[in-house]
Amino acid sequence: MYSHSSTYYVVTCLATMALLLLSLGIRRHRRLNRPRGPKPWPIIGNLNLIGVHPHRSIHELSKKYGEIMQLKFGSQNVVVGSSVEMAKIFLKTQDLNFVCRPQTAAGKYTTYNNSDMMWAPYGAYWRQTRKMSQMVLFSTKRVESYEYIRVEERNSLLKSIFESVGKVIVLKDLLSTASFNVISRMVLGKRYLDESEDSIVSPDEFKKMLDELFLLNGVFNIGDFIPWIGFMDLQGYVRRMKALSKKFDPFLEHVLDEHNQRRMEEGEKFVATDMVDLLLQIADDPEHDVKIERDGVKAFTQDLLAGGTESSTIIIEWAICEMLKKPETFQKANEELDRVIGKNRWVQEKDMPNLPYIKAIAIEVMRLHPVAPLLSPRRAREDCKVAGYDISQGTRVLVSAWTIMRDPKLWDKPEEFCPERFIGKEIDIKGNDFKLLPFGAGRRMCPGYNLGLKAVEGTLANLLHGFTWTLPNTITRDNLNMEDVFGLSTPKKIPLLTVAQSRLPLDMYHL
Ligand code: HEM
């Protein structure tokens, strides 16, 4: 009897508590003022509305639901900001609350469990990676001190193009070899992909690996949003991530082994000469505040190699593509180059302030073809309010730079490639002007913008100075394919085929 009544009492209490919690939950739920958005389906949420080009799907949805919109990807809340005002809130005013990255399969499988800078959660480790990269790679002094490397590799690029004059070339291949050589000499101390070396991976294979890395780090992997079906890997992305990691790892191991060996051989006399040397020193230092393991060194190195190769390559490819569609831009560029540089020397980095049209081409291309149209995803660290709406902790936050940079309220004929729009204007692309965000903004802004910009402007200027560019006979301006592929970067789907002709005196090509 006693036991019966106590059970009754406990059940009654639990039921009352459940009702109370439920009603509180409902009330709390009711009180939450969420941004507008499409009604989610059970299980998939709004994933049915996201097509193969997520930036375009989100752009269309933003037009319908406004500058701040709430979506649901599987069970995950996603908020998208798509105006200057919203970008300013997410990336500046409340940046500290949105400085974290969501946890993804890509971070887990392709960057040694988020040990790199890109996917590292906010905290001491991530801060340390930013500090180190600033110190050893991205400071103005460092970037300038490596100009000789950029000049040497640019000369090799110009020479290879000259050797193929009149023939159809895949521009992207030549560009990415040049970019990779620059970054690998800065980060690893030497070229690692020379065919002649007993290299661990061929240049072609490595380029494919980089493309795959960028693609897989940007894809919408269903398992990230509906974790309980993650094990099925319905899109096959996780399988590809694991396979990719197996290809990168031996290359990175080889790089680290070589560096460690030199360190051992030189003993006391050893002086760190590149970034991997420095990272390994930090990793071995027991006194260092934040411990960086061998995996961290590999992940961080991979980040910089990838970031330094892919972005500038795809921007330059898009630039030549847009110009081929609008040939009068070549004439204007050539006129400026002939007037400022003349025909008897190549463009140097210090010439850039005197080449406003070339600079405007680079900016216009980054506006129309941002490397990261939704920037990189962020995550709310705490519940907060944005523009009067409630954003819950853990919400994934996207800033649609694509929408902002094509907003007809901000840009005249936004879909048109028109470098002239920037002539005579004060322009900031380094995260202070929220209508132009090719490098993002705030604490997670691209740390490599200085280097990236130099690579894009310097290479583009010399490609235009040294050569005229046309399409192969089989392709016309009108049927030139301009489709892109969405990933962590957004390259052309079909690499550009083009034909170069020299436009300077022949002795200029004896580089
Ligand atoms: C023109 C060239 C480049 C463009 C357009 C570009 C663009 C971007 C963008 C849009 C982001 C995301 C920023 C955000 O979410 O707010 C980013 C992040 C990043 N970029 Fe770049 N990037 C370029 C060059 C580079 C270079 C040269 C490197 C390295 C050598 C690099 C390494 C990184 C890294 C590591 C991150 C992640 C930073 C973090 O999460 O803390 N990028 N980049």
Automatic annotation (TrEMBL):
Q: Which InterPro entries does the record cross-reference, listed alphabetically?
A: Cyt_P450 (IPR001128), Cyt_P450_CS (IPR017972), Cyt_P450_E_grp-I (IPR002401), Cyt_P450_sf (IPR036396)
| Source superkingdom | Eukaryota
Name the family the entry cites.
Answer: Belongs to the cytochrome P450 family.
Q: Name one Pfam family in it.
A: p450
Q: What is this protein called?
A: Cytochrome P450
> So which cofactors does this thing need?
heme
An example Gene Ontology molecular-function term: iron ion binding
Iron keyword on record: yes
Q: Which PROSITE patterns match?
A: CYTOCHROME_P450 (PS00086)
Q: Where does the sequence pass through the membrane?
A: 6-26
Q: Which residues bind heme?
A: C446
Q: What does the entry give for GO biological process?
A: secondary metabolite biosynthetic process
UniProt keyword RNA-binding, yes or no:
no
Question: Which keywords are on file for this protein?
Answer: Heme, Iron, Membrane, Metal-binding, Monooxygenase, Oxidoreductase, Transmembrane, Transmembrane helix
